[in-house]
Amino acid sequence: MNDRKLLYQNPVTLLFLGAVPALGASVSVQGALGMSAAVIGVLLLSALVLGALRGLIPSGARLFAAVIVVAGFASAAQLLLHAFLPSAYEMLGFWAAILAVDLMLFAAAEDAAEYGLGKGLLNALISGVIFAVFVLILAAIRELFGAAALGGRAVEALEAYKIPLLLKSSGGLVVFAILLAIVNKLCPAQDGAGPLSRAAAGLGEEKEEQA
User: Fold this and answer.
1) How far apart are CA 196 and CA 177, in angstroms?
2) Domain edges within the chain
3) Cα 181 from Cα 176, distance rounded (Å)
4) Which of the given ranges, 6-10, 87-91, 149-153, has the highest pLDDT on average?
5) Are 17 and 197 in contact (CB under 8 A)?
6) How many CB atoms lie within 10 A of CB 137?
């Protein structure tokens, strides 16, 4: 997967991988910032470990290694938030814990185990930054038009026009779907997704059948 493909085949926009933490943390910009920091941290640390140990991990065990490493760092991130940033931990709550089973993180970690340290770290950084940008835009829209606020500060001009539904799961899904439609229109997905992403989409089986 080259770097350009990551821009239009990022898991959160193409395959809905990472959609759960994206939706859960996008009720406010502050929550989105906390989740984005946790995701980028877990991605980079997982890529660092798996990339460094690439030569020691058999190809058939890369997915299992990715699951173990990501789960470990996600749990560590949750404990660190609870210890040093209790306000952020309370804001994210359950959504911080769910990073331990997030397919988007597994995909990036598996790429690091396959491509090595340098490219693995770069891909992880790009995936994390795109996730952060997407979630922050999603959160800004939901908070601005759902709560007439931005970053916890009230926006009086929108108070009479706010739509509380946007702060609920159903409203979040509507905004998420609209953003996905825009992203996929501007940057259409093409073949070449990473192995785990392809498997999640069922593309790997299709490729084998055609062969």
Assistant:
1) 23
2) 18-203
3) 9
4) 149-153
5) yes
6) 17
Q: How many residues does the chain have?
A: 211
Under 8 Å between Cβ of 2 and 94: no
Neighbouring C-beta atoms of residue 3, cutoff 10 Å: 11
Exposed, middle or buried by CB within 10 Å (0-12, 13-18, 19+), for 42?
buried
Helix (H, G, I), strand (E, B) or coil at 156: helix
Report which of 52, 24, 63 is spatially closest to residue 173, judged by C-alpha positions.
24
| Banded pLDDT at 193 (limits 50, 70, 90) | very low
Split at pLDDT 50, 70, 90, the class of 145 is very high
pLDDT above 80 for 94: no
Is residue 126 within 8 Å of residue 43, measured between CB atoms? no
Give the least confident one: 44-48, 58-62, 147-151.
58-62
Taking the C-alpha atoms of residue 172 and residue 175, their distance in angstroms, rounded to an integer, is: 5
Tell me, letter by letter, the H, E, C secondary structure of 187-211. Answer: CCCCCCCCHHHHHHHCHHHHHHHHC
Greater confidence, 164 or 108? 164
**Where do runs of H (alpha helix) occur along the chain?**
3-8, 11-14, 19-24, 29-52, 62-84, 86-92, 94-97, 103-115, 117-147, 169-186, 195-201, 203-210
